[in-house]
Request: fold
Amino acid sequence: GQCIAVCPTGALTEVNNVNQVWNALDKKDKTVVVQVAPAVRVAIGEEFGLEAGAISTGKMVAALRALGFKYVFDTNFAADLTILEEASEFIHRLKEGKNLPILTSCCPAWVNFVEYTYPDLLNLPSSCKSPQEMFGSIAKNYFAPRVINIKPEDMYVVSVMPCVAKKYECSREELGQDDVLDVDMSITTRELAKMIKEAGIDLSNLKDECFDIPLGESTGAADIFGATGGVLEAALRTAYEWVTDETLDNVNFTQVRGFEGIKEASVDIAGTTVNVCVASTLGNARKVMDEVRAGNSKYHIIEIMACPGGCVAGGGQPYHHGDYDIIKKRAAGLYNIDGSKQLRKSHTNPAIVALYNDFLGEPYGEVAHKLLHTHYFDKSKVYANATTETLEVAEVTA
Ligand code: SF4
Reply:
C-alpha cells in the first residue's frame, strides 16, 4: 500500500475513479452515500492551503454535501463498530486460549500480505471486516431497507480513503451480500480534493457542517484508527472495561503511540497480562510474524498497518514528499480530535448501542457474523516466489 507514496511505480499505476463518482452522482435512480475515513479529515486541507494536521472535518462535510451526496456519513461510525466486534472476538479467543495472537484486519495491504505470505496462519487475523466494509454492509443492509426504505442495490456507497489498497479491498467478491458489494467505489483523499476543485469549491472558506445521523456518530476511539497504534488502543479501551467491569479513567495507552516501526506494551486486564504489539510497514510485519510462526511470540494482540505511521501516511493522501513532520502533524490532529471528544470509548457510542439493540443483537452474534465478518484465502500459490517489494507492487496494481 505505501508503495505509491515511496516508489516511482506508484505514478504509473495510479487509477483515477473521479469520473465514475461524478457519473453515479448524476444517476437519479441511485441514492449515493459517502463515508470518509479518519485520516482524510486531517490531511485534505493541505490541498487547499491549510496546515498539515488542521482538523477540516466540518468543511469536508460541507464540501461533500455541496458535491451532491445524499447522505454524508463517517467511516468512524464503523470504526467504533469494528472495535465492538474485534474486542468481543479477542475476549472470546483469550477465554478459549486459542488462535492467539489476534491480528488486526483493517489494512487491506496487510491482509493481502498475510494471504500470500503466511497462509499457514490464516486462523490468526481477526475475522472482522475493515471499517470501510462494515460501513457499506450496515448502510446497505440496515440503513437502506430499514431507515429509508430502499433496496440495497439502489444504494451506491462511495468511500473516501487515505489509501489506494482500499480500491482493491472493495472489489473483493466476498465483501458483500447476495452479489451486492458492500462498497461500490473507493476514492482517495487526493481524488476527493480533485472533485472539490473541479466543482469550483474552495474548501478552506466553507462553513462547518455536521455528518448525517445515525451513521455519522463516533467516539474518539474511532478517530485514532488513522494513526499507527490507534486500533489497538481503541480495542484496549473497550476490552478492558468489558473484562474488568470497571470504568477506565485514563484511556490514553500512550505506550502504543508514536512512530517507531515496532512498539510493544503489557497491560494488566483483571489479573491477566495482555502483551500487545504494533507494527507498521510490511517489513516490520514480517519480522513480527516470523516470530509468531516460529512459536516464539509472547503477544496476544498485534496491530499491523502497511504504511509507515499508519493511514495518515497512506498512499492516497496529499503528497508529503518524505517530510515526516507532515505525517506527525496529521497524527497529532487525530489525537487532538480524540482528546476533545466527550465519548472516547467505542462501546459508549449511542448510535452503535442503538444499532445492536434494534438490529444486530449481540456483538459477535449471528447477524454480526453474517454482515460484519469475513474469511481469508491461501494465495501462496499465486506468487510462490514473491518478496515484500513485489507483493507491495502486486497490491497496488491488483
Ligand atoms: Fe491503506 Fe496504508 Fe492504511 Fe493500510 S496503512 S489501510 S495500506 S492507508
Remarks:
- Residues 3-375 form a domain with the Rossmann fold fold (CATH 3.40.50.1780).
- The first helix runs from residue 3 to 6.
- The pocket of iron/sulfur cluster is lined by residues 1-2, 107, 109, 162-163, 165-166, 305-307, 310-311, 314 (CB under 6 Å).
- The two ends are 11 Å apart (CA to CA).
